Automatic annotation (TrEMBL):
Gene Ontology terms: cellular component: Ski complex
Pfam families recorded: DEAD (PF00270), DSHCT (PF08148), Helicase_C (PF00271), MTR4_beta-barrel (PF13234), Ski2_N (PF17911)
GO molecular function: ATP binding; hydrolase activity; RNA binding; RNA helicase activity
Start and end residues of each stretch annotated as Disordered: 123-147, 222-276
Basic and acidic residues biased stretches: 259-276
Official protein name in the record: Putative helicase SKI2W
Domain named Helicase ATP-binding: residues: 314-470
Organism, scientific name: Scophthalmus maximus
Amino acid sequence: MDLPLSLLEMGCSGRFELITHPLPGQPLPPHSTLPHGLPPTSLNLETEVEKQFLRDPAWLPIHDTDFAFQRFLKVTQREFNVDSLLNCAQSSLHSGLSVVRDPTTGMLLGFTEVPLENTGLSAKNSLSLQRQPGPPSESLRGSNTNYPFLPGGMEELSLDQIKKKSELEEDIDFEKDLIRVPPGLKAGMDFTDKDAKMAKPEVNLMSLLSTFDDIIDLQAEAEEKEEGEGAGETPKLPRTNSLEDFGIKDAVSSSTPSEKAKDDKSKPKVKQEENKKWAIPVDIASPCEDFHKRIPNPAFTWPFELDVFQKQAVLRLEAHDSVFVAAHTSAGKTVVAEYAIALSQKHMTRTIYTSPIKALSNQKFRDFKSTFGDVGLLTGDVQLSPESSCLIMTTEILRSMLYNGSEVIRDLEWVIFDEVHYINDAERGVVWEEVLIMLPDHVSIILLSATVPNALEFSEWIGRIKKKHIYVISTMKRPVPLEHHLYTGNSTKTQKEMFLLLDAAGNFLTKGYYAAVDAKKERTSKHAQSFGSKNTSQNTTASQDRSVWLSLLHFLSQRQQTPVVAFTFSRTRCDDNARSLDSMDMTTSIEKAEIHSFFQKSLTRLRGGDRQLPQILIMRDLLKRGIAVHHSGILPILKEVIEMLFSRGLVKVLFATETFAMGVNMPARTVVFDSIRKHDGTGFRNLLPGEYIQMAGRAGRRGLDATGTVIILCKAGVHEMADLHVMMLGKPTILQSQFRLTYTMILNLLRVEALRVTDMMRRSFSENHRDTQSQEKRISQLKQTLSTLPPLDTHDQLSDLMPYYRTVTELRTTTEALQRAILESMSGLKALSVGRVVVVNNKQHLNALGVILQVSNDSVNRTFTSLIICEKGNEEGEGKGNAVAALPHLYNTALFIPEGPCSHTVQKLKFQDITGITVKTLKVIPDRIIDNYNKRQQPRFRHDPPGQAISTASQELLRLAEANSGGLATLDPVNDLQLKSVDVVEDSMRLRVLKESLQDFTCIHSPTFAEQFARVTERMSVQEELDRLLFLVSDQSLSLLPEYHQRIKVLQSLQYVDSSGAVQLKGRVACQISSHELLLTELLFENALSPLAPEESAALLSCLVFTQKTQVEPHITNTLQEGIDRVLSVAKRIGELQRECGIPQTAEEFVGQFKFGLTEVVYCWARGMPFAEIAQLTDVQEGTVVRCIQRLDEVLKMVRQAARIVGDSVLGSKMEKASLAIRRDIVFVAGEVKNTNSAPTSFYVPT
């Protein structure tokens, strides 16, 4: 039976009404009313109250009606108490109790009240470590309303802060304002001048202060440590045991204070020079004999003897110094980290160990957990025992803890940065720099890195920004030396063709290289004889690959050189190679049983359906035969199983991509390179030396192998010798700054008044070249010089001296610019050919005519050999041509005519010496002139008459000069040389104007003009250098400053910050989000996620974590498609706004980084579809899908936090549901880090 029922949605409030009595013959009403339903209805309150309280007898008690009536009156006639709405927390106590004890017996005598300092400080208003701890719930991650702790090295005060006086300070005149009679006393001191009995040099405070520059230096250290706290107390001088420390005694007793002052001034300079070097290289060549004497009871001991570099590092840690340890993989850098953890456990403090890769974090957690026990793990999706003394985390989490003022930072003694060379990563390198800059002063830093060429420079930078010494310990020694071979075999017959190319001592053997080339050539020529030659390409077919691998692996297993790691730079190639080895079996039956049981045990945590995934079945089959694959497309749980089996030596051949070398510290006996070319996102290139060393370094297990073997396959042909040489023996990549501004960083720093973004930029490694100290020193020297220069005379005739100087300077720069343009043009060079008459001006010649004889071929420093006329006796240039004196008359165009007999000289002129290219040319015989001139430079022929060619040319030049004494017509760059570029045209017009204006100045007629002009020149050169240095020291010279202003403009347009730079609500939300913060915040505030169901919002947000291209077009529901369009339109809007504000990224590039290839997969997963079916929906590999969903969970958590800040609890709970929907089965089983009892046994055997 069909009931005529219908639901009618009432407005937007989510209320529904059931309609049961439709009018006969009328269609049923629509399910929802017009666009947004009916307006929300609300019953009249009076009738509601009346109905509930007065008419409804159930509410009235049966017996005590009066009481009920009183109650009703109470409700209706309530008195309003507005004050109850204003709740003020009690202010903290300003004093506490302290115990008084008898100093000898220690008996309790009583209590005394002591005032407490800094009671008003909290995480919301102070950067100080003295502030009160926040609530326990925020102790681990902090809160985005907290201030961070003051970063180390940021204590210095700005000039404005020093100038501002607090209420406590006042100006005291030490001559007149001193009180003569102390308060409460009748008589006082008599300060009137009496006749001095001894003529001591007069000492007053000012003379003392001026004598000692170093007191100012000392003050700076003791100066108020706390920038964020208001009261700038008067700076205290550090305590000293006697006046001698300040040298005051010297100044008082010395008969000539000025000499002493000189000594005193020179002392601090020496001291400053010593302090200049922050990075201290540690010598590890000499053995550390007294190690056990110096550390009688170490915090941690190992079953083997430490290397020298490890001992040196441990000694530095005991002294609580920061260290940078650069050593090859497997040299034992972990020892340093272990000792630091043990030390912090001994000191009851905490250590944070950060690594760039989650896999590395998980591995270290397993290792350290078995060693120390008290270890916690924090990654985006896992939080295990966060109260431990040693916390392992990714660098991003440490960054957010620092910005959010986590309480963990208080107890922190060490931060260990592993794999520091990751700072070169374009995407994430900036995080390292931020963390290093933000770490407070009390935290010491341990940096572990592969060998890098500029470890000293990097440490110097850290030392300078943290104001502490960094000890640099680097070792090039490998515990297990490597031998590098080329392999050309591809069949059973040729399987032994392996040629040593680089021996364990590091010698490059060309003999081995040529042998490999011959072996390859012989085979190719045989092949060509029988089948005809076809062009050999770099790419080989799958069957050729297979035969190479089979022959190599047979050969290696015969020589017992397994386990092998085969590095292949493509995931599909990894899989294909492993699958092609179906005939290989490299394990014994005992090993097979062990692998089987371990594999089954590990998979018990998976659901039944998930155990039958194709990838798991294939891998199980491969593993039984001792073969495995490791890359980002493999399921995380399988990767962990493979890593553990590999570390037990059960996996004999592992096909891996480069990430295995980066993230997992598991050595093998042999490393094989499938190819030495890789694709780096833009194109194919050879491996860099650093990458090659990192991967090759996995060969050779300490304590098990005498040498490690590295093999490069020559499948198509032998690689170029030069390429191999660079790759094996080249310098590894230097550490370079990848510092860039992110919106999160800007907003996090703007939240806190005491920290400025420019401070962060100035301290970044990219600005490391700024040597502010020496520049400041030079600035004070220049200021000093300026003050000692004689004053300028700018009266009467000389009143326009400064404008004249400026005009002349502009003329000079314009002329130089024009000259450069002429020299760089073809027509200019044509004009400056042999025979051209030119006007020469340099230290020796002033407007002299010359003729070009020869032009050099060097395009960089081109010279023109010319014959120039000069005075008799000025041929060598010792004449009176004083450059400075010549300057003012530089623009006098009158040509030089010798007063006495005319002589000549042949000189190589630089382009700067030629000030005019005239329209005249002369016929000359250059070779004869030059030969004749050179001959007459020899002493025997010095007095010979000049040759015919020279006489003719010089007579011709003299005739030209006399005929045009006012100046010869020169070639015009625009009209004659046809240079039509805008700059040249503008410069030549400007030049004309300037030259004409020179006539109008009166100062040139003054008798003292030359002297005064020289003074101006000297003063202005000092002033210009001073201005340049002041600019370099200021924020204006920061390379990122323009971008900072552009980004601030974007934030202001989107209302994340207001015009004064205060962070608004939107900005606070964006602080919570670590990547794509603008897009997510905009979506939140536009309510784009509200209409979507939890699984749809999860699917939509997958575009933020998925970065690959997919070939499969996803099938999407309409609501999702609308959501995608909305995300793209928001992204486009942000991209266009950034472009308008001047950020170079185009809107298309900005929108292009969001890829929606996994939306369908995530949608189906969140709705409960099994993983096996999901894998069919896309061509993306299973491991990548799992990793994206795990990262998506982190994004959902961030959005949940952000929604809470906005107060949108509905969205918050929706995100929680979405998070729960995707956290299931195989995707999150890998998140549980293995229980430590199955941790691999280490290969590290005591030698």
